[in-house]
Amino acid sequence: MFFHSKPFLVILMLRVQNLQAAPVPDVLSTEQSTKTSSEILTQGWTPSPNGRGSIDIVWSCVATIFLCSWSVLCLHIPSTKDTRFKILWRRLWLTFLCALGPEFILQLALGQWSSAKQSVRDFRASIHDPNLPEWTMKHAFYADSGGFFLCTPDFKPIPLDAKQLLYLINRKYIEPPVYTEKDIDDKNKMDVLIRFVSVLQILWFTVTIIARAAEGLVITGLEITTAAFVLCSLGATFCWWHKGADVGVPEYLTTQTTMADILKDGGDAAGRPYHRTPLDFISRKEWHWSLYWTHWINILRKMHIIFAPRVLPYDRIENTTWPDLKERGAWPMFIFMTLAYIALFLAAWNDHFPTKDEQTAWRISSLSMLACVILYFSITGFAYLLYPKLQRYFRPRSSLIIESENIDATSQKLSENQSELISEKPALVIELPGSSLQVPKARSRLSSLAASIRNNSILKDPSLDVPLKAQLPMYLVGFTYCSSRTIIWVLDIIQFRDLPASAFATVNWGSYIGHLA
Questions:
Q1: Membrane-crossing residues (predicted)?
Q2: pTM, to two decimals
Q3: Calpha distance 166→163 (Å, rounded)
Q4: Is residue 485 part of a domain?
Q5: How far apart are the C-alpha atoms of 71 and 82, rounded to whole Å?
Q6: H or E segment to which residue 62 belongs
Q7: What share of the chain is helix, strand, coil (3-state, %, to 5)?
Q8: Percent of the chain with pLDDT over 70
Q9: Residue 405 covered by a domain
Q10: Do 353 and 496 contact (CB within 8 A), yes or no?
Q11: Most distant CA pair in the chain: distance in Å?
C-alpha cells in the first residue's frame, strides 16, 4: 500500500526526472579531475535573496566608509565670512583626502591629539589660579581649532592656537579666558550619543568581517578596503574624542596692547615674514611632512585649486595644519597603524579575482603602497638627518673657517651698502617679500628651476625650503602611492562581475551563540 501512495509516486517521478536530465559522466582522467576540483563556483551581480546579495555588500561598505570618512571628521572653526557652501566644500575635500588614504586623517587627528596633550601640560605648569577652570583636553582642542580670536587696537582679529594663547597670557597681554567644559559642550554640535552609535556601527562591521574569516567565507575586495577605513577611523575617533565638531562661533579676547608692540617685544623672530598670522613666530614649527604638504598644496594652487585662505592674515586655522607627532609613542603608533592598514591589503594576496591580471594588479598595488611607506621614511631620514651629519663630518675644517670668514665679510659689506642698494634699486636687484635684504637676480636657468622646485611658496619663505634630494623622489613616491590606491578602488568595483558563491553566504551566528551558551 505504501508504494501506491501519492507522495511516494511524486518523489519517485522527481528522482527519475532528475536522473534523466543529468548526463551520465564518463570516467575522468587524473588531470581532468584535478582541474575540476580546483575550479571555484563563481557568479556575477547577484540580486538580494533572503540573505546577502551584491547590493547588500555594496550598501554595507558604502555606509561604513561614509561613517569613517564623513561623520568622524571634526573640522576646525570656520571663518565668520564662510558660507555654508564653503564649509561643505571643505568637508568634501577632507572626505576625498580620506578616501584616497584614511591614514592621512589618522595622522592629522594624531597630531592634533599630541598638540592638545602638550597644551594641557603647559597650561597646568604655567597657570595656578584656583579661580580658573582647569585646562583640559577639551580646552586644548577648542583653542587649537581657532576657538579664540585676538583683537588688538591696530590690527584685524586673528585666530589663536593654544600655544599662542598661553604666550599672550604669560606676558600679561590678555587675561586667561574663564571658559568651562560645559561652555565648550554647548558649542559642540555633535552629540556624544551619535558619535557612540557611529562607533558601534563601525565595530559591528568589523565583527562581521572577522566572523566571515573565521567561517572561511569569501571577503570581497571592497570589504577589505572598508576594513582598512575602519582601522584608521577608530584611531582618529579615539584621538578626536574630546574635540568638538561643527563649532561655528569663536570667542574674542581683547587687549589694549597693539600688535606692533607684541611683535616688537617678540624680538628678531617676530620680524620674519609670517605664513598665516603675525603670531606665527610663537608656535609655528615646520617639519618634513608639513613641508611636503605645503609644497603639494602650492602645486594645486597654481592649478587654481585653492583650499587655504587667499588673504593674509588668515581668518581661521586651516583644517590641514599638520602638528608634529611629538607626544611620546605617537610616531610608533602611527607607523604601526599604517603598516597594519597596508597589511589588510596584503592579506588578500591569494584571494579570488576575475582574471589573473587583476590579481597581479592587486598584489603589485599592495606591495607598492608598502614600498612607498618605506621609501618615505628612508628618503626623509637621509635628507633631513643623515646627509647633514655626513656633510658636516666630511667637510674640511679649513673650508668651514674660510666660509665663515666670507659670510662675515659679505654681511659687513651688505650692512654698509644696504641703504645705497635700497635707494638706487638697480635693474638686476630684486626685493624679497617681507625683507629688506637685496639679492642678485642674475641666475642660471637651471639654478632658478632648482630654486622653484625647492620652494614654490608665494612669499618664498626660507623656512619652507625642501631639499631637492628629498623633494624630487617624493614626486615619484606620492604619485605611485596615489595610483596604487586608485587601482585598488577600481579592482574593488569590477570584482563584482565575478565573485565566488561563498561571498554571498551569510554568517551562521547560531553557531557562535551555541558556543557561548
A1: 57-77, 192-211, 217-241, 330-349, 361-387
A2: 0.79
A3: 5
A4: yes
A5: 21
A6: helix 54-66
A7: 65, 5, 30
A8: 79
A9: no
A10: no
A11: 126
